[in-house]
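Exercise: predict the fold of this chain.
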Amino acid sequence: MTTIDWLLDSDPALRWQVLRDVVHAPEDEVAAERDRIASDGWGARLLALQGVDGQWDGGTYRPGWVDDEAEFFDAWTATTFSLLLLRDFGLDPQSAPAQRAIALVRENSRWDSNGAPFFEGEFEPCINGMAVAIGAYFGEDVDGIVTTLLATQLRDGGWNCWAEDGTAVSSFHSTIAVLDGLLEYERSGGGIPVTAARLKGEQYLLERKLFKRLTTDEIVEPTFTQFSFPSRWFYDVLRALDYFRTIGAQSDPRLAEAVALVESKMDAHGRWPLENTHEGPVHFELEDGDGAPSRWNTLRALRVLQWWRSAA
């Protein structure tokens, strides 16, 4: 089986993106496959898990069953990460199932930290970045969150969830989350100008070659070189490159090392492995586990490399 056939032998949520980004199939064929997300496979399964209260697993950011006194751990079954996954799948935001799901969230979901409605956001930039990405994608008014994000951009160009505690240096994790949100907001026709802030955030990453320290050129974190899906709130090189592909960036020599890293991970069959799965409860598995060939990573790597070669 060729790599393309292997990618197409999958769920509609992945298959429509392969048709659009790798195969470059006709638009009507891509649209027909995308329409299946709400009724077949992972998308339909995830939509069905939303509670009558609008929440997934009883919580907005953490599941409702998590004890507030328990030691912090990540769980990926609450509303925020479920909506992020529906966005990753490419669920049509104008579809009736999407609109029903979002209406329930808008009416019922509140942030634990401040009690605000979901699309008004909370305090931390990384979480607000995700909320903007979700809200803008699904057509919600997130102007208030965007205003907060613009006011909390740090002098080095990025963002950090610990800024309220006095941190003045940006975080790769927080910055990519905010950039995803600002880009989605800009593409959705949002009324607040965000391009200047977005470009400054992009320069923060580019100056560091997406994974190097500005002062020493050393790798910031080994996990930045390991490719996971879903990314959740985590940063890695493939996620960052897919962002720059999305904006249609021109070839920039500061991206070359990151692209070479992606190329180095391709196996003899033209596939990329899943790496560094972020531990925590999930609704259901999308892949066969770390070390196994990953359709999601292969899709994203192939489209990044196609973009890079065309941009050269």
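Check your answer against the key: The mean pLDDT is 95.
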